[in-house]
Amino acid sequence: xxxxxxxxxxxxxxxxxxxxxxxxxxxxxxxxxxxxxxxxxxxxxxxxxxxxxxxxxxxxxxxxxxxxxxxxxxxxxxxxxxxxxxxxxxxxxxxxxxxxxxxxxxxxxxxxxxxxxxxxxxxxxxxxxxxxxxxxxxxxxxxxxxxxxxxxxxxxxxxxxxxxxxxxxxxxxxxxxxxxxxxxxxxxxxxxxxxxxxxxxxxxxxxxxxxxxxxxxxxxxxxxxxxxxxxxxxxxxxxxxxxxxxxxxxxxxxxxxxxxxxxxxxxxxxxxxxx
Amino acid sequence: xxxxxxxxxxxxxxxxxxxxxxxxxxxxxxxxxxxxxxxxxxxxxxxxxxxxxxxxxxxxxxxxxxxxxxxxxxxxxxxxxxxxxxxxxxxxxxxxxxxxxxxxxxxxxxxxxxxxxxxxxxxxxxxxxxxxxxxxxxxxxxxxxxxxxxxxxxxxxxxxxxxxxxxxxxxxxxxxxxxxxxxxxxxxxxxxxxxxxxxxxxxxxxxxxxxxxxxxxxxxxxxxxxxxxx
Lengths: 275, 230
Fold this sequence. Notes:
heterodimer; A: 6-stranded mixed sheet; 3-stranded antiparallel sheet; globular; B: 230 residues; alpha/beta; Rossmann fold; two-stranded antiparallel sheet
């Protein structure tokens, strides 16, 4: 199998009914069931990511891409979930594992970089402390070793090491995003889920963060799933791309093929909407 | 082959040809005749509606029009290069690193890759003070030199060039011609779209003439006397 695979991923907010899946999706033109009012955030999503590969997921707000990201990162909270997430090094469906196993996976092989900085960082803690926390969760105990590791992660993600002990709230947006990425890399995961990596960053900082991520991703040979509404982000990072709409995958292929020769009418609209 | 709503636009129609190992095939024709579409179909940036693109690689034959996406990605990383007329910008990466990147990814050390990159930029007469600058600030001709250098740098098995010399002045164009001939040598097969007759005559072994999406003729360069219309 590939490194990470998802099969029939489905997420429904609300009670759900017998026709929810039939009455939503691309052809129905909505992700909300007209009978029971439940929202089908995503349904029947199949995907796979190979070691070292970058998969892009693109779509407008509400298309279900963040729900897929959360499911893949085992971070889904509310709602009714169906389908399977499988990892090459583990038996069974990761959506069914107990708390302890999920905790180990999230502090080991699968890392998530949250769209919102506040969801991923404790801004009152130092930048170094935020990264160290991830190491402590994975069982690191030696103070010197932790400081050394945090320092090298700061260097890899291009954060000034001498700011390590300052509160994260004093960092710029771009630096906070780098701390998130440093945190995500801390325990040498083999796949990183990046949810809207450029949210809240101004354009000049976006390019530098993305270029840094691309370099680190290749150097570490870590696989990634990049979720973004920004086609430029996807074009820069992703080898292959999935296009989502109304909770369903409507098109997939090589990133440049999807961008230059889009087959689905919606993808054509999306590509032609870029300013 | 292009679908725009319900309208189908025919980009290429029943084009068949073979390119030999190490051969340099120039593709010429008027604007809109399908030259770029042809290259994109080979590279799978476009998906042909019908037909096959058979690549005879070291590990056997692969139909590039229908192989799995990951097989295409693997071939792009290891054997098949493509460059469009314009530099695909990576923000905030200096020119020398733009050219060095594919070499590094191909296994050279950073120092070796940068050295080779500087040699290529120098041969394309890009002023040395621009090597460490960002191409976003360059003129069209300067950017195109960076683009051409990064395309040929890894000496891929098959190289697809889409008008790589269109913005160069005659002197730089001659430097590009010399470099294409000397640097690529026999190991790289090239299919290139060109507008300038002097480039075609200097580098090509054969010339394919496209007209309204059809292959009009394909002839050895010595028999090619057509005027290339821009």
